[in-house]
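Thread title: Can someone regenerate the structure for this chain?

I was given the following input by a collaborator and told the matching structure tokens would be attached. They weren't. Posting the sequence so someone can regenerate them.
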Amino acid sequence: MNWSWLHRPLESPSIYRAVQNFLGAGGRSLDDVFERGFGGACGLVLDVGSGPVRETPLPNGTLVGFDINPRYVLRYATAGSTSQCDLFGVVGTAAAMPFSTGTFDECGSVAVLHHLPDPLAADTAREMLRVLKPGGRLSVFDMVRPERFGDGPLASFLCAIDRGRHLRTRTALGELLREACPGPWSEDPVVYAWPRLHGVLFMLHKPAQR
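Best answer:
Regenerated them for you:
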């Protein structure tokens, strides 16, 4: 079934945010997972596929929201800088970012890779690692399909109608990341919100140069 009619309104930043709030309400929140994966960031930080708002803790430094949707980037960049963090926005394609190698102290994405087919998702992961400074933290959180339908019937249905047409299982996402960016990735799975959605946080520290 073609669900594109359901997805079009999500191009509006305000509708996008309202839907995110609705689906994320109740049950276990993602706050503790996001704190482990994105908390304590300092310096120049890149938020890949940022959407219209920051979902994770603000860093101490400068935050760059990067997204293909100009409306999202404008909303993100004008959210207002604070004494803790300056905000900027850049429009572009995550699989070919316009940044020099080793630009950012931290790099992360939230719910991005399930919108991309395997080749583009792998290119995006490689780009995130490329623009990260040696020793920096790469954090990737994504919604995943339950391994079995019985593990979450409602979550499985929401995955089927999600506008991200490339939702993977935790196993498949882990294999994709490790093939694209070999290294000691950590995994932190979570079941969250009232629909009992499944997600996983992957983290990797870029090796320091010798």
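The longest strand covers residues 132-144.
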